Amino acid sequence: MDVFGPTPTHDMDFTLLLGVLPRSYQYFVVVGALNGSAPSDAEEILEVLLALSTQVSLHVYWSTAAESTLYPISLRLFPQAFNISMSNPLKDDEISQFIASEIQRRARENSLAPEILDAIQVALTTKSQGMYLWVVLQLDRLFPRYDQTVLYNADIIDALEDLPEDLHQAFRRSLSKVSDLRY
Predict the structure, then answer these.
(1) How sure is the predictor about 124, in pLDDT bands with cuts at 50, 70 and 90?
(2) pLDDT value at position 146?
(3) Is 163 helix (H, G, I), strand (E, B) or coil?
(4) HSE-CB of 25 using CA atoms within 13 angstroms
(5) Which of 22, 64, 118, 179 could serve as a FRET partner for 15 with CA atoms 20 to 30 Å apart?
(6) Superkingdom, according to UniProt (predicted)?
(7) Bridge partner list, 58
């Protein structure tokens, strides 16, 4: 006997969601880190969302690389999905321009050396892997807006040497900085 009650199942998750979601609303779901999941777990998540989309107005967004094991699964479950390829060489120039403009905008309030600003540009452009959200999280770390921490040239160099490898790690680091104990 399980002292915590029955083990949750796919059907229980679906029934629970249908019971709490008003059907007259539109829902937008952004799913992250599926590539880091086991293919069977990722497939189960997408299956629940697919089943749910037949009952409510649901828009599902996720990202995956074409070489990922998740890619064929997502195409099979969502054949009508709109795909945006990140394998476009123009995106590299675009993200580099975005980084440059953000550094220029955010650096107005700091007195960082020009070579530090150049190092930020190179590091973020090189390691971004086309992920704008990753870039924004790093910019927020390097140019803090809402706390009292002021980063100096040496702090920036240390931070650039310790950039997160992927979006999952970037989220983890960002969330670890939240000081509100309710979260």
Answers:
(1) very high
(2) 65
(3) coil
(4) 8
(5) 64
(6) Eukaryota
(7) 27
* Whole-number Cα distances in Å, 51 to 41, 47, 56, 80, 83: 15, 6, 9, 15, 20
pLDDT digits over 41-90, tens only?
Answer: 888 888 888 888 888 888 888 777 777 788 888 888 888 777 666 666 67
**Amino acid identity, residue 25?**
Y
Tokens representing 55 are 């009952």
Q: What is d(CA 100, CA 139) in angstroms, rounded to the nearest whole number?
A: 11
Residue type at position 149: T
Is this model's pTM higher than 0.70 or not?
no
Q: Could you tell me where the beta strands, DSSP code E, fall in the chain? A: 26-31, 57-62
Instruction: Pick the closest to residue 78 from 54, 102, 107 (CA basis).
Output: 54
Residue 60 pairs in a beta bridge with 29
